[in-house]
# Entry
Amino acid sequence: MTVSLADDLVSHVASRPQRVESVFIGQAFTAVKLTSGEIGLALTPLRRFDSCIGASRLAGTFTKCNSAELAKFFLSSHSFLRSIGLAAINSVLQGELKNRSDFMEGDFLDFLHIESGDKVATVDYYTTKIEALKKADLTIFDDRFAGKRKDVLILPLSKMREKLPEVDVVVLPPTLLDKIEEVRKLAVNAREIVLAHPTVPPLPKPFFERGVTMVASMMILDPDSVLKFVMEGAGTTLFKRFCRKIVFRAKS
# Structure
């Protein structure tokens, strides 16, 4: 039986349960803070939840769970629970980063060699990266912005199956964690499969085993400040005050 990426991530943190101090579901980010002080983030689903029912009927009970129990929510089909699960996984992994040295510091573009003739594809509109990536032959897959810009090609996600076999470099967001192996099979000629976002789990092995060549995440240096800014609606551009960009590179 094939073990899924989600199973691998949940299993990794299951043996070291920790007490949970708080769980926050914000408009942009979901956060889990451990009593040890570590915090993990995940993207909150884009769809709105019903104003009366809320994100989950389990609200008010999450802090009764430990980190391992919350992590299991990442196996759920409920999108908001999955975000809590991923945030819980990331909270544990942030603590483990203190004892790791197998990463490089810096933006993933600093370590990604892209030539002018390369065909590059990104899934989701990476606002802060577009200008740098436009130096290549760039295609963006994003249903929200398909066809809405004249200076760069933005296609609906349905076009990935047609276009990915042609690309040299693929950059993926954490919203496609469940589809990494599918993307790898489609992007048969890609020399680079990059998973990049501050909420990507900083645990490279499960991703490398599934064909990813680079994992770009962040190390949180000031958890309390990150949580405060997330609760006040901050985006990723403000994280640099309290975090450090890190990159894991697969060996050739």
